[in-house]
Design goal:
The structure holds two protein chains of two kinds. Chain A contains 13 helices and no strands. Chain A has helices at about 5-10, 15-50, 55-60, 75-105, 110-125, 130-145, 155-180, 185-190, 195-205, 210-225, 230-235, 250-260, 270-300. Chain B is mainly alpha-helical. Classes of the chains: A mainly alpha, B mainly alpha. At the A-B interface, helix 2, helix 4, helix 5, helix 6 and helix 9 of A face helix 1, helix 3, helix 4, helix 5 and helix 6 of B.
């Protein structure tokens, strides 16, 4: 008799309630369907690509020339271009971001923080096409005065501008991690007579390590996925080089380059943007996942 | 020994603090200086004609009207699709499926989607909306693609604001005999609305400035008419700017700078409004 009560109340639930819950559930399902569709789309088109191009060519050929008569499909020139620009960006974003995070969490008054965070948030909305313009029209000419041999398109200018763009992300997430370090640890260190800088470098930063690492990895992932800055300012010439002064192409820039032209579905060029997209997805997915796990770790400790 | 070390510490600390302060000030000043330089470059070219004219092969006669109209139509359509779905999704996760495994799976997916590069959304849109659903290079195909892209932003902001609604209010409503939905509609939605609006404005601003996925789903770079329906082909302001930047001719790059002034004005205002709305919300809560 007793267990009849809940089932009775379920029967009495108005139909509208049931319909609304089902609709909301459906809305929530969209995220799952989107992820599945991304994996499926990239997977199927990549499979079609590999039915025409040997995986060994993809992995070991050193040239990427799908748009030339003599087609080569070695992914490394694009990966190399992507890693080069991302590395330059992180060389800017990590030191500046980390020091800025220390400034914000350890040395800034609440008043400064009160104004700084929102201003940075507003600036974070600057569209990437604007950064691309800045890299091409302003930064490259300045670099040319310092090193005349640098090309009108190069990896250095977009890399530097990208670093400027990503720095707030690294700073903000690192600050959260540093702030999560218990005050008692700082006080214990200071109480032992350790200086303020040593306390930060030897006690606070190591304690915040997983959170800082998470911010750096997430920043790298964003650099790898960034598109317009490199499409505009890096040139679109895939080449296997670590020289930051010559034109290169990144994975994202190649996808844009092909999309600018009229590439019919079913051609090898069309499939090639999906195989590059799949490689890009795997790279960013792994980085995001590691970053997520690391940030969860420090959240659990605090 | 100890006294000596003590005396040497302040010097190190001063240097260190100067470095930290520099790390905040230098990038901020550099960024603002670069933006001011773009604006200075473009503002002279900006006049009523520039906003009201169509693109042209002649740089000095070209304008951004179709691109601007396309951008506005596109982001409105995007919001129309993304906001209801994202808010519904947030309500489900917070008010209905709270502890279930299904909710956990969805959470993992949202976290993942928030980090997927925008070009990947473009590839998805090209395959599903442009080809499979045969929507071609239309406004609606672009809007659907952007909707998927901005949804995680709205979902996350909405969930945060739903969580700030005190449980006592929910229990009071349910205790007085309200059904779950009438409780959600009467209590949770009104209280969480400002946070949802903030998230939606941020998403709108992001959609307005986005270009890479739209290039992939076929927004055109040269359009000489205004969008006249959801199946219309279209251009957007960022894509018009990209097109002008890519040309070697200097006059077109001045056009690009003028276009950027309009784009920045729109996007930075939207972001400022979003930050202000949230700020007032936080103050009210405190």
């Amino acid at each position: 008799m007793e267990h009849d009560a809940p089932s009775l109340s379920r029967v009495q639930r108005p139909l509208a309630e049931v319909v609304i819950e089902a609709l909301l559930r459906l809305a929530a399902m969209v995220s799952v369907v989107t992820t599945a569709a991304i994996v499926l789309t990239l997977g199927l088109e990549s499979a079609a690509f590999f039915s025409e191009v040997a995986p060994a060519d993809f992995l070991f050929d050193t040239e990427w020339t799908p748009l030339f008569a003599q087609q080569h499909f070695g992914i490394w020139p694009l990966v190399c271009g992507t890693l080069l620009t991302s590395f330059i960006a992180m060389m800017v974003a990590v030191p500046f971001g980390l020091l800025a995070a220390i400034q914000m969490s350890e040395f800034s008054s609440p008043r400064v923080r009160f104004w700084l965070k929102p201003s940075v948030e507003v600036l974070a909305g600057v569209p990437t096409v604007v950064y691309g313009y800045v890299a091409l029209i302003f930064v490259t000419p300045v670099l040319q005065q310092v090193m005349p041999s640098i090309g009108a398109f190069n990896a250095l200018a977009p890399g530097l501008v990208m670093g400027l763009m990503i720095m707030p992300t690294v700073a903000s997430l690192s600050e959260d991690a540093i702030r999560a370090v218990p005050v008692s640890l700082r006080e214990a260190s200071l109480g032992l007579g350790v200086g303020r800088v040593s306390t930060i470098v030897r006690v606070v930063l190591p304690s915040a390590f997983s959170g800082i690492a998470a911010s750096v990895i997430l920043g790298t992932s964003r650099a790898v996925g960034e598109t317009m800055i490199v499409a505009i300012a890096a040139g679109q010439q895939p080449r296997l080089t670590l020289d930051p002064t010559v034109p290169i192409a990144t994975m994202t820039a190649f996808i844009v380059q092909v999309s600018m032209g009229d590439t019919p579905q079913g051609t090898l060029e069309y499939k090639s943007i999906y195989v590059v997209g799949a490689a890009l997805f795997v790279m960013t997915f792994v980085m995001n996942w590691v970053s997520y796990k690391l940030s969860r770790r420090y959240r659990r400790l605090t | 020994m100890i006294a000596m070390r003590r005396r040497s510490v302040p010097v190190g600390e001063i240097v260190f603090r100067a470095l930290c302060l520099g790390a905040v000030v230098v990038p901020l000043v550099a960024l603002v200086a670069l933006l001011v330089a773009v604006i200075a470059e473009g503002v002279g070219r900006l006049d009523a004609d520039f906003v009201m004219r169509f693109p042209s092969r002649i740089a000095s006669a070209a304008g951004i009207l179709p691109a601007l109209a396309g951008s506005i139509a596109l982001v409105l359509l995007t919001m129309l699709i993304a906001v209801p779905v994202a808010v519904g999704s947030a309500l489900y996760l917070e008010e209905y499926g709270n502890r279930g495994r299904f909710a956990g799976v969805i959470e993992v997916n949202i976290t993942n989607l928030a980090g997927v590069p925008s070009v990947i959304y473009g590839l998805l849109g090209l395959e599903i909306f442009v080809r499979f659903l045969a929507l071609r290079q239309s406004l609606i195909a672009g809007a659907l693609t952007l909707s998927l892209l901005v949804m995680p932003v709205i979902i996350t902001a909405s969930r945060e604001s739903i969580r700030t609604v005190p449980n006592a209010l929910r229990e009071a409503a349910l205790g007085m005999g309200a059904t779950r939905w009438s409780m959600v509609r009467g209590v949770v939605l009104p209280m969480a609305a400002p946070g949802m609006i903030t998230g939606s404005i941020l998403a709108l601003s992001r959609a307005f400035g986005e270009s890479a996925p739209l290039i992939i789903v076929g927004a055109a770079t040269f359009i000489t008419f205004l969008p006249n329906g959801v199946m219309s082909s279209y251009s957007t302001l960022p894509i018009q700017i990209f097109n002008w930047v890519s040309r070697p001719h200097e006059a077109f790059q001045t056009n690009a700078a003028a276009g950027i002034v309009v784009l920045l004005a729109a996007v930075l205002c939207l972001n400022a409004v979003a930050v202000l709305v949230r700020h007032r919300l936080q103050r009210r809560r405190n």
